[in-house]
Amino acid sequence: MYKIAVLPGDGIGPEIVPEAVKVLEVVARRAGIEFKFTEALVGGAAIDACGRALPPETLELCRQSDAVLLGAVGGPKWDALPPEERPETAALLPLRKELGLYANLRPAYLFEPLADASPLKREIVSGTDLIIIRELTGGLYFGPKKREKTEDGEVAYDTMFYTRAEIERIVRLAFQIARSRRRHLTSVDKANVLTSSRLWRDTVESLKGEFPDVTVEHMYVDNCAMQLVRRPTQFDVIVTENTFGDILSDQASVLTGSIGMLPSASIGGSTALYEPVHGSAPDIAGQQKANPLATILSAAMMLKYSFKMHREAAAVEDAVGRVLAKGYRTADIYVPGTKLVGTAEMGTLVRREL
Amino acid sequence: MYKIAVLPGDGIGPEIVPEAVKVLEVVARRAGIEFKFTEALVGGAAIDACGRALPPETLELCRQSDAVLLGAVGGPKWDALPPEERPETAALLPLRKELGLYANLRPAYLFEPLADASPLKREIVSGTDLIIIRELTGGLYFGPKKREKTEDGEVAYDTMFYTRAEIERIVRLAFQIARSRRRHLTSVDKANVLTSSRLWRDTVESLKGEFPDVTVEHMYVDNCAMQLVRRPTQFDVIVTENTFGDILSDQASVLTGSIGMLPSASIGGSTALYEPVHGSAPDIAGQQKANPLATILSAAMMLKYSFKMHREAAAVEDAVGRVLAKGYRTADIYVPGTKLVGTAEMGTLVRREL
Ligand SMILES: CC(C)[C@H](C(=O)O)[C@@H](O)C(=O)O
Ligand SMILES: CC(C)[C@H](C(=O)O)[C@@H](O)C(=O)O
Known about the structure:
The structure is a homodimer of 354-residue chains.
Chain A lengths: L1 E8 L3 H19 L3 E5 L4 H7 L5 H9 L2 E6 L14 H13 L3 E7 L12 H4 L3 E7 L9 E6 L2 E11 H16 L4 E6 L5 H13 L7 E6 H10 L6 E4 L1 H14 L7 E5 L4 E5 L16 H13 L4 H16 L2 E2 L9 E2 L2 H11 L1
Parallel strand pairs in A: 1-2, 1-3, 3-12, 5-10, 8-9, 8-10, 13-14
Antiparallel strand pairs in A: 4-5, 4-11, 6-7, 11-12
Helix pairs in contact in A: 1-10, 1-12, 6-7, 8-9, 10-11, 11-12
The complex binds 3-isopropylmalic acid (2 copies).
């Protein structure tokens, strides 16, 4: 029996998460195992209920679970709060840090039937299948930061700080993931300018001997941002610093058609966290318009990374592929000539293909 | 009489720069003014000649000139050097800093005949006309940095440091430029996570009262990376921190077809610097294959920003547009059905249209 913490969150969260839970239930039944789901509050819903975006009970539940499935957090209702107190920041950052989730995995995979929905030309995006591994508990996000008045006026700073050990663990993980894929690793940094990037690059160099079967390339972050648009098919696994990863993974997420398709996993601690890349989409919340596929694919990542159920994970991904191939689309990926369906309907279609 | 320092640099630099110089000569003749051009070494060529990527004589010449036209620096010959000693880093960073060039202006403008060469679908990229204004002498590039061994092992850091005054001058410039365009300013930061971004955002807020005719929007950097691909036409002027600007402007540069089309200006000091966005392209150097249009368009920016010759600047841009509309292309923007020309030929065509 595996314990799964379920945090629907805000906006479309409560609509999409149940679809993924039901997929996991089908998988469990087939595999003859049991998942025990426990719901908890997070984000704006938690702020409203108890004044905190990440209540201690929720964190405790996550700690005691084998995996966490999260929907999305935030919305206009809480936009009057200072940026650092909004649900996204005040829930997600401490959750990652507290659970020790140092690696954020974000695949950008093109389901070929969706090439029309991509902003990129078909011949550019076709075949895209990459994963960005973002360092998630260090770097510019968590280094020393301060704002103060000095003799020279007001100043503020943040620090991109890394220890060699922090870099080693994420890079080693990236090498291992590259090994399970096409064996090509692109390490992204700004080593021509940043000292922390030089430590990053040296660390990658020092580890590559352990993975002789993986080819390694170093790329500057500005060039990577360019190459992701120019020729995304050149990438297999990308590993990079927290802030660089935040930017590049959001950029990559739109290449493949819709951010509504993209799952993520945050791993490294004892309990991993799975969530769609998209936000809470308050504008369409409660209307059964949201695309549940990113959450369903996040559940597939859970099967793979938390429960080592590789076959079952692949089955879920294949089911999603078949539903798309049959022409079913939620509004975010709809193009004329396809069949428009709602959130629950899309979930049912995927389960039927399982 | 205006004095212009000419630094061709490496690779294709010595092929493209003369084409822009000749355009400036035509402009001067028509306008009845005089430009005095003086050449100097920079980059790898300078390393080879005197062991320094930015020789003191070159810097001195730049200081005494009214504007600087630079080609490109770097190449495989110097790639064995540590990243921070390579021509790009060791020439460009100190040149910017010494000349006080705190604002890097990078337009991404689609010449409509080139929509086919863009990785984006025509309906997405058509109409793109934005400019990124990147802070260039502060932020993560120039804040305190260090690498050291501690009890916890090796560590390294860089600091994203800003004073309110540094932010004010670049934001004010961005407002002014927005005023001369479509009056929409997007300030890009990561204020939900970074303290320096909060100072950035507050500074923008404190200045906007001075520019009531400009609409201002704040956008997180990850979202901006996404929006640039999803819908680039939503942007007019983008202003942002040094590293964010490095990443976003390189990303934006590929949207419009070819990086071979994109000019830049670095301004703020007494002498401004103009250079194409692309690099020295050593693979095609010496073959008359390079696209001189980015350098020619950089010369147009010089006319506009250094010499206030707005009409002449527009005339150069229009000439480039007409040459493209007539179907002439260098190799980087060639598609079947257009007419392939070399570097010098493209330069001649533009001058003929002037
Ligand atoms: C909400 C925000 C703090 C978060 C981040 O920057 O990490 C988000 O952009 C993400 O990528 O998960
Ligand atoms: C060469 C490098 C130091 C430089 C930078 O990062 O500023 C380049 O990428 C640029 O954008 O001009």
